[in-house]
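Mods, move this if it's the wrong board.
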Amino acid sequence: HVQLVESGGGSVPVGGSLRPSCVVSDHSFSLRCMSWFRQAPGKDHEAVAHISRDSATIDYADSVQGRFTISRDNGKNTVYLQMDNLKPEDTAIYYCATDHGATKWSRAYFYNFWGQGTQVTVS
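Not the wrong board. Structure tokens:
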């Protein structure tokens, strides 16, 4: 069973930065693509960023392009999301997820493993 544990959320002022992380308890972490999603109150999961197993392919939602940076450390089974120049509309619970098979990375429905989420509040 794969477990994902996020941490590093918090409350910051507009323009601030945060760096959530997600640790994955899986011996095959280096073979997994990883993604970050977020969910604001009353809204569906929104895809944020995706990174391939070797970090060669990285994708971002248009809403965070240029402000967020996804990265991973396969030696630590950890994926990170550096968030800079935060805006109030970035306020949400942020989740990491993995295992979406051959489907498009931004479709939350197809992911099999999710973390519990970490709250990010920007005001």
